[in-house]
Specification:
The protein is mainly α. It has 5 helices and no strands. The radius of gyration is 18 Å and the shape is globular. It starts with about 50 loop residues before the first helix and ends in a 29-residue tail after the last helix.
Length: about 180
Amino acid sequence: MNDTQEPRNEPRRDRDEQGRARNARPRDGLGRPLPYGAPGVARQPEGVVRAPAQSLAEAQRLLDAGMPFHAHEVLEDAWKTAPEAERELWRGLAQLAVGLTHAARGNAVGGTALLDRGTAAIRPYAEVAPYGIDIGGLVAWARELTGRLAAPGAVSAAGAAPRLRTAGDATGNRPAG
């Protein structure tokens, strides 16, 4: 600003304790921002380091509750803390959750793009299937959901939620289908 300019009276961005930009607006169950002061759904804490099985169990719980945006946040934490060899797997799982988020919001174009990206990221792990993740089932689920997005309207987030792990896994999750 030079001497002839007046200072702007724009609202400052929300910041966390470390000074990073954070939107403090409440959000609904699909992660859409609500007006300040409106009741919203509790957010997932960021930066939580969990064991892979814990990340998958928490993400599945959130998916089953119709909260894929929140599941994506859990999977994003796993992606950011995963060993290099697994980062694409976790990134792909997070993208699938965001794809479901967009589908549930009625955004077919965004949903399809993220489901396609997520599928491409997890497909290389099909033979290994780390942590009992049902790669084949997730790929089939994403393909089926993408086909449903050709019709107008949103899908039910809880009704369309995938199973992340195979039925034989200790968590008891059933395969997608």
